[in-house]
Amino acid sequence: MKERKAELRRKYDTTAKAYDTRYTDIQNRKYLEVFSKFDVKVSDVIVDVGSGTGLLLDFLHYNKGNIFCCDLSFNMLKEGKKKHQHDHFVCADSEFLPFRDSSADIVSSFTVFQNLPNPSAVMNQIIPILKYGGALILTALQKKYKIEDLRKLIAQTNLKIDTIWNLTYEDTSVIARKVENKC
Predict the structure, then answer these.
(1) What is the CATH number of the domain that holds 99?
(2) Residue 6 is part of which domain span?
(3) Largest Cα–Cα distance of the chain, in whole Å?
(4) Residue 86, CB half-sphere, CA atoms under 13 Å: how many?
(5) Which runs of consecutive H residues, i.e. helices, occur in 84-146?
(6) Could you say which DSSP state residue 113 is in?
(7) Cα(181)–Cα(108) distance, rounded to whole angstroms?
(8) Residue 113 lies in a domain
(9) Can you tell me the distance from the alpha carbon of 54 to that of 77, in angstroms, rounded to the nearest whole number?
(10) If you write DSSP's letter for every residue of 23-81 in order, what string do you get?
């Protein structure tokens, strides 16, 4: 597992300077589709797990002060910091998220879970930092995660699925809310 994480860090550290050129258009298509189904309030605190260079900051420009970009790749975060000098960038392993319990209204993770060696461990980190009623917005590549796979992942938690669907462009997506008791 450590080897896989080190490999991912090296890959993204190496490609960080070219990341925005390669992926801005694709990610913006995903953001447009997801956020057409979900309203973000200006006051929402968002933790973006696997944020890379902060493309979500670019997309949600009106909500900048409340987004925490979290990534394993230092170089990806460094590129993001060049664009967003006054915003929050946190270098951390998604299996050890450094956020307080009930501190986030939204936790997002776009096109990350297919890279994770232990997705359940990451879910165990995400759930506590979400406030009750808070939302998880998660997308993963369809070639690795089908709708049923995301349903199974969410079923292990105290999240209730609001909506789950195949995005128009390459990902499967779920929006789920943290509830006190699973119904």
Answers:
(1) 3.40.50.150
(2) 2-178
(3) 45
(4) 5
(5) 119-129
(6) G
(7) 22
(8) yes
(9) 7
(10) HHHHHHHHHHHHHTSS---TT--EEEET-TTTHHHHHTGGGGGGEEEEES-HHHHHHHH
Residue type for position 155: A
Reference 112, options 25, 43, 37, 23; nearest CA is: 23
Beta-sheet strand order (sheet of 171-178): 88-91, 67-71, 46-49, 104-110, 130-141, 171-178, 159-166
For residue 126, being part of any structural domain is answered with: yes
pLDDT, tens digit, for every residue of 13-64? 999 999 999 999 999 999 999 999 999 998 999 999 999 999 999 999 877 6
pLDDT at 183: 47
Taking only Cα atoms into account, the Rg of the chain, rounded to an integer number of angstroms, comes to 15
Q: Which two tokens stand for residue 132?
A: 């009750």
Count: domains in the chain: 1
Answer yes or no: is pLDDT of 153 > 60: yes
Q: Is position 183 within any domain?
A: no
Residue 46: half-sphere exposure toward Cβ, Cα within 13 Å: 27
Quick one: which of 50, 25, 21, 30 has its CA closest to 116? 50
8 falls within a domain? yes
